[in-house]
């Protein structure tokens, strides 16, 4: 069961709905640790001051903002804390807008909003009202000492909260200098491109797409856990153990035959579909 | 027995693991039996794999569990395994396909629980040139393989009218695949346009039974003639490849007379072949799909 990462309430108009926030996506990356190749020990990270070539403890480190090359102003944690937005525990809805007005480029991370036990009705009301009006809420939320722009929208039977990028964070297309000219296509080219799109037209089925690289990494790890080392060439001293393929298969084939009482060759299948 | 054993096959050493693992729970067909099948069918199958970039469909825990497609040849492949790199303007999209050039690679891939072998329509030497036109005839419920066979025969006749000889194989499930060998200079633009026009022509002749649009909701009871596989990035299941179905069935080449006979007998089972039957067929008939690799034909202008 995923853990709630924030709790507070949605405030819109006169209604307050107590909610908890759960991440709607989970990290499925394969994570590696760094080991010392010689003895397999996990290595530690240390902060080192190059001037004295000395290990520096974390409590002796301050934050510096680089003003120009090698010129820093020091900012203390207290100073930053004083600036932190007040943890209001409130998602304040500022506007309700058409979802088509928000380009997906603004969305950052989805979370599920789950109401507490008594607030099912108000939660359902907000969900239905957004669905009926085809509008979604835009508001602000303070979490982990940071202010977030958020959108809340209906998804299935739940309200999803999307953290969003602020406008100044989004790179505009004109900022990308390498963007080449786009000479206009001929009608024939457009028609062909349209045909290709038509040919591949389908409805979106997310289950069809997989992270092939991650699957391959997992398969690699599984094969190593099972003791198969494909990376290594077969060691020379194993030469004597190499057997003919048929000899290698024979025992296993015999076992399979026993198990199925010769059923690997059925008399004749009736109907296959 | 030990979990892994090193076998000598085709002049190379191949590590075999978990040979007793049941990949088809319904029939108890094991990995050893699959490797045995691929080894025995190799003389017929290898010519269809040679030089052809391959996508692996792997089922580490058998046909009823999760599977994954692998385009990129696993990085840990033995050095004697051939690969072909598909050029791409984007370096990160470059794909290194495995290419099966001999029985050792076939066995190595089968040991990785590759049940299905899907190949590009081009060769690793020229990714822009399809060697054949492929049609995938897929019956929508309640139509079955016999209906697909009927449509395949109509397709064969339409192709014959255009002066082209074609060859059929069953999908190993409910479909029928029809290949038109070219083996001459052509492009995917040409083959795809030709395949689409042919599919549409069939649809216009038999609107109640054949559909050329891939929308699933149009398919009910009809045969979908999929022409879209004639694409540089798409793969079709290789002749003699096993299929990850309930039983260890094979995408087996068939003679046109067999399709007609099965329809006459109304026996869909006549068009479903399991591994052992395919070995028997290859022994009796040889590789009836060999012309697909040799026959030179040109698309009509």
Notes on the structure:
The complex is a heterodimer of chains A (273) and B (301). Chain A is α+β, with helices and mostly antiparallel strands and 273 residues long. Helix content of chain A is 24%, strand content 29%. In chain A, the strands form three sheets. Chain A has a seven-stranded mixed β-barrel with strand order 1-2-8-11-10-9-7. A two-stranded antiparallel sheet of chain A has the order 3-4. The model of chain A is unreliable at 230-240 and 266-273 (pLDDT under 50). With 301 residues, chain B is α+β, with helices and mostly antiparallel strands. Chain B has seven helices and 18 strands. Chain B has helices at 31-49, 103-111, 145-161, 188-205, 256-265, 275-285, 291-294; strands at residues 4-9, 12-17, 22-24, 29-30, 54-58, 68-70, 82-86, 95-99, 114-120, 122-123, 126-130, 132-139, 167-170, 176-181, 210-211, 223-226, 235-237, 253-254. In chain B, the strands form six sheets. A six-stranded mixed β-sheet of chain B has the order 15-16-12-14-13-18. The radius of gyration of chain B is 19 Å and the shape is globular. The relative contact order of chain B is 0.17. The model of chain B has no long low-confidence stretch (mean pLDDT 92). Strand 12 of chain A pairs parallel with strand 1 (4-9) of chain B.
Percentage of β-strand residues of chain A: 25-35%
Query: Which residues of chain B sit in consecutive blocks of at least 5 with pLDDT less than 50?
Result: none
Which segments of chain A are poorly predicted (pLDDT under 50) over 5 or more consecutive residues? 230-240, 266-273
Q: Radius of gyration of chain B, Cα only, in angstroms?
A: 19 Å
* SSE-based structural type of chain B: alpha+beta
As a percent range, the share of helical residues of chain A equals: 10-25%
Estimate the helix proportion of chain B, in percent.
25-40%
Mean pLDDT over the full residue set of chain B: 92
Q: Considering residues with a beta carbon less than 8 A from a beta carbon on another chain, report the largest interface and each chain's count.
A: A-B, 47 and 56 residues
Instruction: Note the quaternary state here.
Output: heterodimer
Give the amount of beta strand of chain B, in percent. 25-35%
What kind of sheet is the major sheet of chain A? 7 strands, mixed, barrel
Shape category of chain B:
globular
Shape of chain A: extended
Number of strands of chain B: 18
- DSSP strand count of chain A: 12
The secondary-structure class of chain A comes to alpha+beta
Radius of gyration of chain A: 30 Å
